[in-house]
Amino acid sequence: SSKLSADGVAVLEDCIGFSLTKTISKVEEKLKKGSSRDCQDDDIIPSVGNEMEAETHVRFLKAKLRVMQEDLANVVFECRKKDDENQNLETRLKDAEEENTRLQRTISWQQSQAEKYKMLSQEANKRNERLQQQVITLEKVL
């Protein structure tokens, strides 16, 4: 999961230029300078009053950060998985469209062949009728 966390952070940093390390450093600097009251107003830090020391704030923030990194890594993993699935489905769709085009050509060719043989059959039937008429005529002559 640590690999996923690192990947997730890297992806987040790539996407929006956000650095978790920089954010941690800024929070730690604020806490060292004694501006922990600013942080207590944030919704990510539970309101436990002035008894909570800066070190405790940092530990809490780091723990919260680890959880968020894992969540982010899981989301990134799921996104990559969905991207792979989408790619697979796009490939299958393309293959199906190509197969459909090939089958349409085959159907078109078969229809033209059927028309050709239908015309040949009609011509053969007409010739057969003419020949039968000739046979009847010759039989009468004989």
UniProtKB/TrEMBL annotation:
- Coiled-coil intervals, chain numbering: 79-141
Q: Which UniProt keywords apply?
A: Coiled coil
Superkingdom of the organism of origin: Eukaryota
Give the protein's recorded name.
Answer: TEX9 protein
Cite the source lineage. Answer: Eukaryota, Metazoa, Chordata, Craniata, Vertebrata
